[in-house]
Amino acid sequence: MRTVEDIEIRFPGSLAEALAWQADEKTRGRPLAGGTDLMVQWESGVAAIPERAVSLWGLKELKGIRETPRGIEIGAMTTHTELRSSPLVREKLPALAAAAATVGGRQIQNRGTIAGNVANASPAGDLAPTLLITDGLATAASASGRRDIPLAKLFTGYRKLDVRADELLVSFTLPALPAGAREKFHKIGTRAAQAISKVMGACRVRVQNGTIVSLAVSLGSVAPVPVRLPELEQWIAGRRVDLNLLEEVERRASAEVHPIDDIRSTATYRKWVSGRLVRALLEA
Ligand SMILES: Cc1cc2nc3c(=O)[nH]c(=O)nc-3n(C[C@H](O)[C@H](O)[C@H](O)COP(=O)(O)OP(=O)(O)OC[C@H]3O[C@@H](n4cnc5c(N)ncnc54)[C@H](O)[C@@H]3O)c2cc1C
Question: Which of 63, 100, 176, 193 has a CA 20 to 30 Å removed from the CA of 74?
């Protein structure tokens, strides 16, 4: 039986070299970022042991966080530690910084990357809701060019992404928190540390003179893909924040999600706690 030791791990010298390998089925390898998801999946048999893996760890083109006119551009190989400690991310994308700080422990944060978290395409991936609330883009590259994918269309099903086998995710471009808006991330798990979420979510909200101008809210672990709550978002715009509103928000958020039972929680609990969580996100 093949084991992890049988995998040929290749180390490209540049992104162009990696993309050239990925273009051809005979040289293509499983993208390997920090390996914190893949190593566990290979060892446990959840993912098939591939012939080859392409390590992206050393590719400088996939690193870095910078401000651009389209938003904050984050390289695919940016680690959770880099996200949580970046002054730019903490100021302009505070929910993302907060989510990165809750992923696993320090070892996982030092090694796990934003692209790995997204491309693993688990509904329990903590970063996804914080990306979805920005209405940002993921950029995928292949040997024949680059394309931007709206994050709202990236997750196509359970563990499925709109990224082809010859493509690699290279960056994420996330519009910064607008003036007058605030963001929050919250995660509910069995315990505070090293726990995969039962439900988690993030919101970006703008309130002016006590009235909600706009709300973007996203939850994970309540559907096969991370979701936004468009009905709630539409309903709430223009309404005054008070106790009645928060109670109605809790009811509506809970009604808008349709989770399932699995090893981490029950559908009933997830539905109830989704309402509580969205309410908590809105309570400043
Ligand atoms: C003990 C432990 C605790 C954890 N806790 C959490 C937690 O609290 N929250 C959470 O969300 N996750 C958690 N994880 C999961 C994991 O650490 C994160 O999802 C991490 O961000 C994965 O990133 P990686 O770089 O290690 O990805 P990898 O394991 O290298 O890759 C993951 C997937 O992404 C693909 N991939 C990677 N890079 C690219 C790319 N550039 N383009 C296309 N595909 C790509 C790989 O082929 C693979 O399918 C935990 C894992 C462990 C082992």
Answer: 193
